[in-house]
Amino acid sequence: MRIILLGSPGVGKGTIAKLLSRENGCVQISTGDILRTAVKDVTKLGIKAKEYMDNGNLVPDHLIMEIMEERLMQSDCRKGFILDGFPRTIPQAQQLSALLEKMNINLDYVINLEAPMEIILERLTTRRTCCNSSCQEIYNIKNNPPAEGGVCKICGHKVVQRDDETPEAISERIKIYNQKTAPLIGYYAKEGLLRNVESLHASETVSAIKAFNISEV
Ligand code: ADP
Ligand code: ZN
Fold it and tell me: What is the dihedral of CA 182, 184, 185, 187, to 10 degrees?
């Protein structure tokens, strides 16, 4: 499958992308994960991105496009991909369309994940993430806690709250989502690619997405 997952911070894009990629072997490409790894490894990209991220702002489009052009060219993407957290602005979506056209690739669908705002806020404040940059498994202190001692069930690293999960940064991220990312819903609806899917229970959301007629690759 080749899909984009769209939706507000905390709606479950990362969780759903990980479940889908484990089931069907597609690669999950999360710009948030790529950026957090860069910040942790203090690369040139990480140094540039950190301040934007910690404040809940978007990282500039040209940096994101550089990352994604390189990432989508890698051979593992031939198995299909799930874009999680990208595109996030209209210019990113336009540049992605041009890039896919150049690569001769069609998207199957753009899945817009939906959940009520009170659930989203609750998820964002109770979310915890594995600090191992090659894992970044997502937990929730209420309904999906990490293992004994606050460590990741998969890799054993410490599970932590992200730097951008303070109440101030969360409300900034939601404001920016509404201004800059929500317009993509209309953009992809016009292209005929948009499908709305409720994101309340992960397994039901995954089944709903798989029920669409999606290409094998
Ligand atoms: P969430 O969707 O839960 O807010 P992500 O892990 O997708 O979090 O992203 C974390 C941060 O990384 C964002 O707040 C933003 O600063 C940056 N980021 C991730 N993807 C993009 C993107 N496509 N364009 C610009 N900034 C991005
Ligand atoms: Zn882990």
Answer: 150
